[in-house]
User: Which sequence fits this backbone?
């Protein structure tokens, strides 16, 4: 990936939020997801979600991120939704195709964030979860053609939903995105230090 950082601060030792990556035939896949539940129940869901992502890519040879999410959703419905349970995940799956120098992604409820030339943009996402819901449309296949110097951020709702500050309120997405924009020119190592410090102070 080149220069990057991961900020992962689960409330408990295990978590319903996870990041996961694998490589297959010159394609590097990166997922940042939020499973149903928290703590131990959320962690069990994370293991299940990771296994279905892995199955789609490594065993079934599915290439496109949207088709991978479609597969994971189908497997979740088959295994968990017999009694109407809507367990699953929200998240982003990105594919870096080294052969074609292309970045593609699929997103369920979570929007990838791009910062380029001093501007922050929220990319498109599907307003459906990876799991049983009222709509079972296929996830959209999206592509990115970033200019040099573009920074891509993937996050769950963990930082934005953290309670704290002077009034015990949520941090919120607007403040988080402003923070990303204000610090995007710093090194990835420095950015991680800044976000970690602000997160702890907010708590």
Assistant:
């Amino acid at each position: 990936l080149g220069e990057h950082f991961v900020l992962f601060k689960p409330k408990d030792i295990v978590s319903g939020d996870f990041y996961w990556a694998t490589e297959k035939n010159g394609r590097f896949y990166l997922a940042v997801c939020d499973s149903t539940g928290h703590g131990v129940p959320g962690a069990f869901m994370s293991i299940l979600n990771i296994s279905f992502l892995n199955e789609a890519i490594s065993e079934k040879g599915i290439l496109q991120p949207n088709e991978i999410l479609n597969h994971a959703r189908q497997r979740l419905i088959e295994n968990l939704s017999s009694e109407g349970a809507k367990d699953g995940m929200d998240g982003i799956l990105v594919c870096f195709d080294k052969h074609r120098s292309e970045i593609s992604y699929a997103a369920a409820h979570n929007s990838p964030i791009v910062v380029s030339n001093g501007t922050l943009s929220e990319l498109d996402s599907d307003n459906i979860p990876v799991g049983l819901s009222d709509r079972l449309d296929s996830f959209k296949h999206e592509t990115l053609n970033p200019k040099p110097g573009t920074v891509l951020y993937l996050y769950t709702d963990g930082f934005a939903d953290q309670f704290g500050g002077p009034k015990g309120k949520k941090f919120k997405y607007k403040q988080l995105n402003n923070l990303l924009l204000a610090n995007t020119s710093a090194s990835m190592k420095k950015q991680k230090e800044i976000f970690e410090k602000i997160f702890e102070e907010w708590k």
Remarks:
- Residues 48 and 198 are 32 Å apart (CA to CA).
- The longest helix spans residues 39-59.
